[in-house]
Amino acid sequence: MIEVLLVSVVLIVTALVMDHPGTEVVLLDNKSSQNAIIVTTEGGSLTIDTPYEGTRLESSSEAPSAPETVSDAELTAEDAETFAVAPPPPLTLTLYFENNSAGLTPKSRHDLAQILPLLRELSPLRLTITGYTDTTGSESYNLALSEKRASALKTMLERRDVTMRRCQTDGLGEYLLQVQTPDNTTEPQNRRVVMTIR
Question: 65, 75, 64, 30: which is closest to 49 by C-alpha?
């Protein structure tokens, strides 16, 4: 009997093999954070911290097999039922702002108008909106500006009849720059909000 465990969190696997010899343990790619699996049997322990690596457990007295890499396509084909019930990955959209402003650039206003039908179709949305700035201005000013940008986008969505089940807005100022720049550098790609829809 072969079972495939699809894991995307830190997990210590013990004793599963006693009931299911031939169990395979695979670390999925979480994309948003670093994960690992520690697989332990009476025969030894193995840490897997690379996405799409896995090990096979034959018995509780044998050590986990050496890690092997499997492709996303192989996993999906092998265990289609598990993937069929998995939630879809979050949808992420990035919009850009004018310099020193909570107003979208003309291109991002156009992009927002283009995606509004999809957002309405997906409503009610569970959203996270995070604002950012470039490195011009003080840290405290940029933090406040990034929060204004996130709130401004939330207001824009509400005024355009996008229904939200939950919407969290945050501002990270000049942290996590999209384009790395020195301090006091104007960079349009850093003046943005990232909207994540779950």
Answer: 30
